[in-house]
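Final report, closing paragraph on structural work. Over the funding period we assembled a curated collection of sequence-structure pairs, and we close with a single example.
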Amino acid sequence: MIITNEHNLPGYFVELLNKQYPPKPGRISVTDLIAPPLIRHLKVQHWDELAEDVADRLWMFLGTMGHAVMEKTDLENALAEEKLEIKISDAWTLVGKFDRLKDGCLVDFKFTTVWSYVFGDKPEWESQMNVYAWMLRQTGFDVKQLVIDAIYRDWSKRKAHEDNYPPIPFARTCLPMWPAADAAEYIDYRLTLHLNPAMHPCTPEEMWEKPTQYAVMKPGRKSAVRVLDTEDEAKARAESEGKGCFVQERPGERTRCKDYCPVRAVCPNNIYRENDRENDRENDRENDNGVADKTHGAAAA
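Its predicted structure, as stored:
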């Protein structure tokens, strides 16, 4: 993977955030296990072609610093940042590094957006923590509780008094613990998907898909009167609101595919790839025209 620096960030950021390792055949991390199989598959196929700008990895820098401190500090004699490696079958070895374990309480530190609090914890957090718990049990450790300690990087003090907003930039959440048999079944199921990744395109949930919606708007008002799922419902509501009301379409999108997927540039199912290619072609045409203008001006002089 190529790490670019399009915004000319200081070189130490590039050095610190340039550590990327390609997936290895037969070895799968907990993060890759719970992620869409197609992403890992395309990483394996196109690793040398993939590119990411260091500016898009800055939040990772915060997490890296936090975990480095945890690893080097004696946190009440807890186990911290320990690597686990479990051979599942002849085809797979599962690897991962958990954050903290003490007295049966498994803790994962998340440096995340406040929206994780507003909209509720992410399902992948529950899956991740239960996989780690299963791995720890396989190596002789007892896990009794699963905890997320979240630090909200974009927390605002001005909003702290609002409903459904964290009063401080931190929250502790206890996650449900699965029975050992359920965790083992989940791991086997996910590994089966990863054996045939091309046969399993990303689900709408995995693409973070938002459906198209229709907003009923009133002249002179910035916010919508109502946002509805169908155009017919929206038109009926606009008519009932009176003269001047109109319907504004809010197109849906696949947020992960558009902006966040690490393999979006090579994914055959990414509906935004053609738009990206057209933008690249337009930029090339503009650059060519600029060069031609300069050349023409020099010749005329």
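The longest strand covers residues 93-102. The first helix runs from residue 11 to 16. We thank the funder for supporting this effort.
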